[in-house]
TrEMBL record:
Keyword ATP-binding in annotation: yes
Coiled-coil positions: none
Keywords: ATP-binding, Nucleotide-binding, Transport
Assigned GO CC terms: ATP-binding cassette (ABC) transporter complex, substrate-binding subunit-containing
Lineage: Bacteria, Bacillati, Chloroflexota, Ktedonobacteria, Ktedonobacterales
GO aspect biological process, one term: carbohydrate transport
Protein name (record): Sugar ABC transporter ATP-binding protein
Keyword Transport: yes
Length: 238
């Protein structure tokens, strides 16, 4: 089970409170989107699950395990960032294998996982190429592949499409949804784009000013926005 729970999570930098009393229960296999304007605390929430920041108050659970204070590499998460830097001198295979090599996985296991992930993402024919020989969309798929091979319990994605042009964004969005349907890893996906949120999320948490304004399925938010902020942000002025 890869449920992720936030229980009364607060985060302060110096004395500035950037996240306030976040409570959310993300179900096993769920694709949860955190959406809200720039600076509302989305990345901070994700980074606390990853262990890159510690909450000032409250507890975070991955599965049944309280992970406060647990080292990021012991959290069984895989993160896809906005700036998905690939190693330019390494092949696609080696880029995808890198994290597993660091963790001393046996070679045959690495080969099996990379080939499986390549199959899922349609990268089989590109494994021997270098990043500069790939299109932007193919590179983004390699970045996703690096996360998949970890076979982590939870995927964390922080605006993974924001460096892509509009056409590629739509294509990669579809790839991520397909990927999730196939492997069903619990995912927290951060974006400031409401269209992305509405088309991708099983549920969406709308944040503003470090506070969750509403959590619900896209249709619920659309039909019954909890307040003017949600109505305006989701875009249903009537
Ligand atoms: P979002 O991802 O929604 O754009 P962030 O979570 O990155 O927002 O940031 C939320 C707020 O916290 C912002 O005001 C940001 O400036 C502040 N913040 C984020 N990280 C730090 C940090 N390490 N030190 C101080 N302030 C930070
Ligand atoms: Mg951010």
């Amino acid at each position: 089970m890869a449920r992720v729970q936030f229980e009364h999570i607060y985060k302060r930098f110096q004395k500035v409170e950037v996240v306030r009393d976040i409570n959310i229960d993300i179900k096993d296999k769920e694709f949860m989107v955190f959406v809200g304007p720039s600076g509302c605390g989305k990345s901070t929430c994700l980074r606390m699950v990853a262990g890159l920041e510690e909450p000032s108050e409250g507890e975070i659970y991955i599965g049944d395990r309280m992970v406060n204070g647990v080292d990021p590499k012991d959290r069984d998460i895989a993160m896809v960032f906005q700036n998905y830097a690939l190693y330019p001198h390494m092949t696609v295979f080696d880029n995808m294998a890198f994290g597993l090599k660091l963790r001393h996985f046996p070679k045959p296991e690495i080969k099996k996982r990379v080939e499986e992930a390549a199959g899922i993402l349609g990268l089989e024919a590109l494994l021997k190429r270098k990043p500069k020989e790939l299109s932007g969309g193919q590179r983004q798929r390699v970045a996703l592949g690096r996360a998949i091979v970890r076979e982590a319990q939870v995927f964390l994605m922080d605006e993974p499409l924001s460096n892509l042009d509009a056409k590629l964004r739509v294509e990669t969005r579809a790839n991520i949804i397909k990927l999730h349907q196939r492997i069903q890893t619990t995912t927290i996906y951060v974006t400031h784009d409401q269209v992305e949120a509405m088309t991708m999320g099983d549920r969406i948490a709308v944040l503003n000013g470090g506070i969750i304004q509403q959590i619900g399925a896209p249709q619920e938010l659309y039909d019954h926005p909890a307040n003017l902020f949600v109505a305006g942000f989701i875009g249903t002025p009537s």
